[in-house]
Amino acid sequence: MRSLLIFTLVGVGAQLVDGALGMAFGVTASTLLVLSGVAAAQASAAVHLAEVGTTLASGLSHWRFKNIDWGLVAKLGVPGAIGAFAGATVLSSLSTEDAAPVMAAILLVIGVYVLLRFSLRTPPGIIAGGTKHGAKFLMPLGLFGGFIDASGGGGWGPVTTSTLLSRGKTAPRTVIGSVSASEFLVSVSASLGFLVGLRSEFLDNLPIVLGLAIGGIIAAPFAAWLVSRISPALLGAAVGGIVVLTNSQKLVKYFAVASPWSTLIYGGIVIVWAVFVYLAWRLSKAPSFALNQIPDAQPAADAR
C-alpha cells in the first residue's frame, strides 16, 4: 500500500509538470522512480505502459477537437515506434548497474535541453505561409525521439514537440495533438520491447503502472487549471534544473566522485540553475512572451 501511494504521488507530480509544459511526463516520472529505488529498465517500462492508456485517451481527445494531422502522425509515429522498440530492447539488455548511468546521462541531457528551451527562448509563433514538414525531416526525428524516449525513460515530447514548434510550420495545436497521438504508437512499441527484454520482470511493474495511472488521473484536472496560472517558461526552467541536478547525483555516485569535488559540482549546478530560473522569470515578464501565448498553444496538457 505504501509503494502504491509513492507511485501515485509520482504520477501526480509528473502529470502536473506535463499539464503545464505539454511535455516531460516520462522524464519527470522516470527520474522520480529511479530516485525512489526502481531499476532504470523497470522505471522506463512502467512509464511507457502507463502512457499506453493516457496517450490513447489524449489522442482521442485531440481527434475530437480536430487537432490532428494524420499525415504528420504517420510520418512521425511509425519511425518513432521503431526507435522506441530498439531503445527498449537495448535498455533491457543492459545490467542494472550499467543501465542506471546510461539512463541518468540521457535524462541529464534532456534536462539541460528543457532548461535552455524554457529559459532562453520565447514560445515560437507561426511563420506566415509556412509549409508542411516533409518525410525526410519527420522520419529521422521520430526515429531518434522514439529511441531516446524508451532508452532514457522519457523524451518524446522534449525532442519532437519542441523541434516542430521551433520550426513554426504547423499550428501549435496541431503539433501537440499530432505528437500526442503518435506517442500512443511509441508507448505500445516500447512496452512490447520491454516485454521481450524483461520477460517475467515486466509483470513486476504493474503496481508502478497502476500508481502512475491513478496519480495522472487525479492530477489531470488541476494540471489543466495550472497551465493558465503558472508561466511555462518559469516552470520549465525549474523542472529542467531538477532533472539535471537529480541525474547528476546519480552520475557522481556511479563514478565515485568524492568531496570536495562532488560539492563543487552540485554547487555549480545550483548556481547555474538559479541564473536560468531568473532568466526564465525575466522572459515570462517580457511583452514578447505575452504576445506569443496564442490560443492554439494552450491544449498543451496532453502532449508528452
From TrEMBL:
Q: Where in the cell is it found?
A: Cell membrane; Membrane
Bilayer topology:
Multi-pass membrane protein
What's one Pfam family here? TauE
Q: Which GO terms describe its cellular component?
A: plasma membrane
* Keyword Repeat (UniProt): no
Q: Which residues cross the membrane?
A: 70-93, 99-116, 137-156, 176-196, 208-227, 264-281
Q: InterPro entries this protein is in?
A: TM_pro_TauE-like, TSUP/Inactive_protease-like
Keywords from UniProt, A to Z, are: Cell membrane, Membrane, Transmembrane, Transmembrane helix
Q: What protein family does this chain belong to?
A: Belongs to the 4-toluene sulfonate uptake permease (TSUP) (TC 2.A.102) family.
Under the heading PANTHER family, the entry gives: MEMBRANE TRANSPORTER PROTEIN MJ0441-RELATED (PTHR43701), MEMBRANE TRANSPORTER PROTEIN YTNM-RELATED (PTHR43701:SF12)
Q: What is this protein called?
A: Probable membrane transporter protein
Organism annotation: Mycolicibacterium hodleri
